[in-house]
Amino acid sequence: MGVRKAKAAETRTALLDAARRLFAERGYLNTKITDITKEAGRATGSFYEHFTSKDELLQALLQGMEDRADELVDTAVHPREHDLTDRAQLRQHLAVSWTVFREHAPVVSALFQAMIAAEPGSGRAWNDLVGETGILKQHLEYSAEQGKALPGDPELVAAAIGAMLAMLGYAVNSARGREFDDDAVIDTLTDLLHSGLAGPRD
Amino acid sequence: MGVRKAKAAETRTALLDAARRLFAERGYLNTKITDITKEAGRATGSFYEHFTSKDELLQALLQGMEDRADELVDTAVHPREHDLTDRAQLRQHLAVSWTVFREHAPVVSALFQAMIAAEPGSGRAWNDLVGETGILKQHLEYSAEQGKALPGDPELVAAAIGAMLAMLGYAVNSARGREFDDDAVIDTLTDLLHSGLAGPRD
DNA sequence: GTCTATACAACGATAGAC
DNA sequence: GTCTATCGTTGTATAGAC
């Protein structure tokens, strides 16, 4: 890679880093393009040499997050035949989601804000929620086929679980003056969703 | 009340109605003050005679919603001694929340959007969530005192349930081309939270 | 109280020099 | 590719006539 391109890549990275930093502080919606260039120490015009909009930059951040090929989310080895009525398997799924949220908080929170800010009439909130919980839905359908009695429609149950994770993750992430033990949270959610409020707890 | 005041009240009401309508269509964040006055058929300047900001108008809408003194939420007769591990009592609580969300969707959704748009650093998301689930928390604490085994810290469990309701309600509310049977949703959530995914279902 | 008109700030986006 | 400078739009808020 030539020096020219290296410089460009440097600026691009600087913009991405600055954006991530600001998204964490002020949130995606409250961060303006001019804020990002300023934070990155670049001129306003330079932004458009790398991205056409704030949303595209967000997609780039998301891409970079996925590119890290988290060992956690090994989609290759993720058969439909998972049984979420099994406590260990349920916990594993919740742990992955929760960990991703915690480790990539700026990006995930930004995506969450972008989703909420969309026009209600667009149906984006529901579509995104269903899309991101597709895996859960499949597992639940599988369990249902095995004769397990579920609380209701797999799509709805999956969406409900996804909603809990997303909103709680966002809230916990914004909490100040309050410490959270991630393992304890995951255990709590696991117990709540596995056996419910009245289920057996030993 | 004089004619003068009546006219003023009329404008105020027109603004509130217009706002509610637009909040439902485009969402709170995408609705501008000028949009509201335009929709209400009033001049921009008139807005500030009644409200100092869009947020204050939202508070007024919220107030009006509470003023209807929903028979549903009879806080007067709402002792701490409710047992959410009892299926019927749990369902009752979920039904109330869900119904309020569905019947006052424009206002509740707007509040949700305002909460999410706040700076993450403000901690508003967590504070609001904890505040709105205070009742649940008290019920859970009571159950714990009665020797029931809960999934975890009452505040966290209450927040998790509140998160699920808020986000799912928002998403369902935005869904297009998808019909929801409110009773079915409430039943599903009740079963999920009462007995969990693996709990007994007859 | 309501209107018209307008000041003012913020922000996105582009042009042109280097 | 990056910069400075600037245009144009949008939206908040106020001034002053009626």
TrEMBL record, chains A, B:
<feature type="domain" description="HTH tetR-type">
    <location>
        <begin position="9"/>
        <end position="69"/>
    </location>
</feature>
<dbReference type="InterPro" id="IPR001647">
    <property type="entry name" value="HTH_TetR"/>
</dbReference>
<feature type="DNA-binding region" description="H-T-H motif">
    <location>
        <begin position="32"/>
        <end position="51"/>
    </location>
</feature>
<dbReference type="InterPro" id="IPR009057">
    <property type="entry name" value="Homeodomain-like_sf"/>
</dbReference>
<dbReference type="InterPro" id="IPR050624">
    <property type="entry name" value="HTH-type_Tx_Regulator"/>
</dbReference>
<keyword id="KW-0238">DNA-binding</keyword>
<dbReference type="Pfam" id="PF00440">
    <property type="entry name" value="TetR_N"/>
</dbReference>
<dbReference type="GO" id="GO:0003677">
    <property type="term" value="F:DNA binding"/>
</dbReference>
<dbReference type="InterPro" id="IPR036271">
    <property type="entry name" value="Tet_transcr_reg_TetR-rel_C_sf"/>
</dbReference>
<protein>
    <submittedName>
        <fullName>AcrR family transcriptional regulator</fullName>
    </submittedName>
</protein>
